[in-house]
Write a structure and sequence with these properties.
The chain is 42% helix and 10% strand. By secondary structure, the protein is of the alpha/beta class. It has a 5-stranded mixed β-sheet, with helices on both faces. A hairpin with a 6-residue loop joins strand 4 and strand 5. The chain is globular and about 55 Å long. It starts with 16 loop residues before the first helix and ends with a strand. The relative contact order is 0.18. The N terminus is likely disordered. Zinc ion binds next to helix 8.
């Protein structure tokens, strides 16, 4: 699964609210809304307050040690957490900007946050990404504990376990943003394109991945350009599959969920929308 050396030049849209709005409009016949009201449940607000003040939950955690509070590392300043898809996307965009400009803040890793998260989690975004070791969502979006629910499979392909995990995040945790995150030089996509050309079966369960990605192969392109175009087409295909899932579609229709496609560029470390 050697990587492709091509550089994409097809879609340079920034990952911002405007691009989301445009993305949403491409889903014919379905309206995508962001949640306008504050959907934060009371329990979450309490948790956030505890996390921000480092009081109740942190106090419980101190039972395991005898060190005075003054000996603990400094607690990072609290930040406003996203409460809807629009805010979530804005935070991911800001985090990716920090990442690619080497100004990471490594948020939500303080002792207070770790203690607060022992009782509950309220991630603000679901990221379905590839297993590629160069694209860990928490790093490329500069997020911390409890911020992202990440689900990863090669080529971010869907199966029952992936769909069940996504459904858990949306239906049980009420996460308002679901991002399908592909990336430049995806080995799973390249292997699929190569196997399609050679007609050879891929070993073991790897063939399953190729079977899922194959419908996205862009046969109008050749060589590295075909791999690159198929990466984008695969993101769109997965996004459309998810949008057609009845339970997810109902959430989208009610305005509680937004589904977007995005791509990470290894060369620039930038994430941008795939519409
Ligand atoms: Zn990949």
């Amino acid at each position: 699964m050697a990587k492709s050396g091509s550089t994409p030049d097809h879609d340079s849209a920034t990952l911002d609210h405007d691009s989301v709005t445009r993305t949403e409009k491409r889903f014919a016949g379905r309206t995508f809304h962001c949640v306008n009201s504050d959907p934060t449940p009371p329990a979450r607000r309490s948790l956030l307050r505890a996390a921000l003040t480092g009081t109740a939950a942190l106090g419980a955690g101190l039972a395991i040690g005898t060190e005075p509070a003054a000996a603990a590392p400094p607690i990072a300043a609290p930040r406003k957490r996203p409460t809807n898809a629009e805010e979530a996307l804005r935070e991911l965009s800001a985090g990716n900007r920090r990442w690619r400009t080497f100004r990471q803040q490594h948020p939500d890793q303080s002792p207070a946050v770790r203690q607060a998260l022992t009782t509950a989690q309220h991630p603000f975004a679901l990221v379905l990404g590839c297993i590629d070791s160069r694209v860990p969502p928490e790093l490329v979006f500069d997020q911390g504990l409890g911020d992202l629910m990440t689900i990863r499979s090669a080529g971010q392909v869907l199966d029952e376990a992936v769909l069940g995990s996504l459904a858990y995040g949306v239906l049980e945790l009420g996460i308002p943003l679901l991002m399908v995150l592909g990336h430049q030089s995806c080995g799973a996509v390249k292997a699929t394109v190569q196997a399609d050309l050679s007609g050879e079966e891929l070993p073991a369960h790897i063939q399953y991945l190729a079977d899922q990605i194959s419908p996205a192969i862009d046969r109008t392109k050749e060589g590295d350009a075909r791999v690159d175009a198929t990466i984008d087409a695969n993101i769109r295909l997965i996004r459309s599959h998810l949008a057609a899932e009845p339970d997810l579609a109902a959430k989208v229709d009610s305005g509680a969920l937004t589904i977007v496609g995005a791509r990470y560029e290894l060369t620039t470390q930038r994430v941008h929308s795939i519409r």
